[in-house]
Write a structure and sequence with these properties.
The complex is a heterodimer. Chain A is mainly alpha-helical. In chain A, about 75% of the residues lie in helices and about 0% in strands. Chain A is globular. Chain B starts with a strand and ends with a helix. The chains are: A mainly alpha, B alpha/beta.
Chain lengths: ~300, ~250
């Protein structure tokens, strides 16, 4: 077990963080809003952590304080919430594909801004982000509680008044409005929650991958997140979590397959590098054959019945 | 409402229609297809903004308010082409409409604070009572879209009642129901009206039901109000007979 953990430390932590990011995409989707803004807030959170840890609280030798990492996460959450509100109020007047496009534009704007500012290190970015842990697997001390908290949050959200308002908007915005649910208010709420989650993941990720630049949190990330949610399942929080975990591990599994040998060279190459192509194809096939993803509330109920041993 | 007009491009859907509905009244709205009845409902509930005219409700000017604000003031409706939250359970459909009568926020709900839990309990109880009222209490967990058409209409009424409205707008509640169901619906509407002290605005094509239920009836044709009065008088009005009732009356 320790050997497995240290061999796959980077992958395992990446899986957990991906699952949290997938939840960030899922929350607006509860209200029927496909927002691809999460990578933007993820990038923002990362820059905040990278700047704070290299400029504000620089360390010389030794480990960086975990408490400071937590502080960075709080700052990232606040900044993301504020930016989320500023962007969300106008953006959520748009519907469907137009919202998706506007949020892609938002991510792109942030990327170009980061690329051209001095404080973000321009094209080079910020490297040498200090490490709070001696080994990578120890990032689980932050990653796992974060995933647990976010899962708990979204699971509870699905069962309370605010969550019901979101789902009502997804099902029929006009009817929800006529039943007293303020559409703008709840869409902005979902968007802001999504921004906070993404920002917090960004903050811890900057330490985890040790460097942060404008290639983090781009449209590519958005496509991956969309694959996590749409394939995992968009009708229960379990879907994006499983989607994030499994689909993050998938490229490694495919690489393992490619290295087994005996495969044509082009196919092995495809298995190694075709991650986004495979995700794209999965999204296309998934939306046709499993419009609500693989894990739906109905699947969970069947699972619970069998597992619980009830008649 | 006063001289309400609603135009869509060049089409005048509702033209300078004015009438007042008294508290506790069951007010029928009839007329041929395309007469502007549903448009009138959309105007009252804020789904459509009038081109001209004012809407007054309990002394307040509600013209131009967004639908959720109007709902919060106590005006609830059902839809001609049933608009339930199809994938959600019957119970959830009704619980959602308790929104304006409950107040727990995001954090208190997520954290499960005592106040939110107590409220959640009451919400569930009230929703079950309403399902019971419309005769659907035996399958609260079934998805709304799996219900028969008639049951969906009754579920929509339960959902509208969950808002605790003073004014209830029913858009063709009997459509798709058989004779027995129509009679039961009639009883239901009469029952909730007295029990909950409701004012009801009713669009319905089934003339016997309208004549039987309503205190007064307004007849629309091509967006214009052509008659207004108690059922007996409207039934004899020659303009109404020509435009709508025909031999049926």
């Amino acid at each position: 077990m320790p050997a497995f953990l240290s061999a796959y430390d980077f992958l395992l932590v990446s899986m957990v963080l991906a699952a949290v990011l997938a939840l960030s995409l899922y929350v607006p989707l509860m209200a029927g809003q496909l927002s691809l803004a999460s990578p933007g807030f993820y990038a923002l959170g990362g820059y905040i952590a990278a700047i704070m840890s290299t400029r504000v609280f620089p360390v010389t030798g030794g480990l960086y304080s975990v408490w400071l990492v937590l502080l960075e996460m709080v700052v990232a959450a606040l900044a993301s919430a504020i930016l989320g509100l500023i962007v969300g109020v106008p953006a959520l007047r748009l519907r469907g594909i137009f919202l998706a496009l506007a949020t892609i534009a938002f991510v792109e704007i942030l990327r170009v801004v980061a690329l051209n500012l001095t404080v973000t290190g321009g094209a080079i970015g910020i490297f040498g982000v200090p490490q709070p842990f001696g080994t990578q697997i120890q990032y689980m001390w932050v990653g796992l509680p974060l995933l647990g908290l976010c899962m708990l949050f979204v699971a509870r959200l699905e069962r309370c008044r605010a969550g019901r308002a979101l789902v009502a908007l997804r099902e029929d915005e006009l009817a929800a409005d006529a039943m007293g649910v303020n559409p703008t208010r709840y869409k902005v709420l979902a968007f802001t929650v999504s921004a906070i989650i993404a920002g917090v993941v960004g903050a811890i990720s900057a330490h985890f991958i040790n460097t942060w630049n404008s290639r983090q949190g781009t449209f590519d990330t958005g496509v991956s997140l969309m694959a996590f949610v749409l394939i995992g399942g968009s009708r229960t929080f379990v879907g994006p979590v499983v989607g994030g975990l499994v689909l993050t591990a998938l490229p490694e599994v495919l690489r393992g397959l490619a290295d087994l040998g005996g495969l044509p060279a082009w196919f092995a190459q495809f298995l190694r590098d075709g991650r986004l192509i495979i995700f794209g194809v999965l999204i296309a096939l998934g939306t046709v054959f499993f419009p609500h993803g693989l894990i739906t509330p109905a699947v969970l109920r069947r699972f619970a019945r069998r597992g619980g041993g009830k008649p | 409402m006063e001289t309400l007009t609603c135009r869509f491009g060049g089409v005048v859907a509702v033209s300078a229609v004015s009438f007042a509905v008294g508290q506790g009244e069951v007010f029928g709205l009839i007329g041929p297809n395309g007469a502007g009845k549903t448009t009138l409902f959309n105007l009252v509930t804020g789904l459509t903004t009038p081109t001209a005219g004012r809407l007054r409700y309990q002394g307040h000017d509600i013209t131009g308010l967004p639908p959720h604000r109007i709902a919060a003031l106590g005006i609830a409706r059902t839809f001609q082409n049933v608009r339930l939250f199809g994938e959600l359970s019957a119970l959830d459909n009704v619980m959602i409409a308790r929104h304006v009568r409950t107040h727990s926020g995001l954090m208190s709900g997520v954290l499960g604070l005592p106040s939110a839990r107590a409220e959640e309990h009451v919400t569930r109880q009230r929703a079950m009572d309403l399902l019971d009222l419309v005769g659907l209490a035996d399958r609260p967990d079934e998805q709304a879209r799996n219900f028969s058409y008639g049951d969906q209409r009754r579920l929509e009424i339960a959902r509208a009642l969950a808002l605790e409205p003073q004014l209830l707008l029913l858009d063709e509640p009997a459509a798709g129901m058989n004779t027995g169901e129509k009679r039961a619906l009639s009883e239901l509407i009469r029952g909730v009206r007295t029990r909950l002290e409701l004012t009801i605005l009713l669009i319905e094509h089934h003339v016997p039901l309208v004549m039987d239920l309503c205190d007064r009836i307004a007849v629309l044709n091509f967006g214009q109000l052509i008659a207004l009065g108690p059922p007996a008088a409207v039934r004899k009005n020659p303009a109404v007979i020509e435009a709508y009732l025909g031999d049926e009356a």
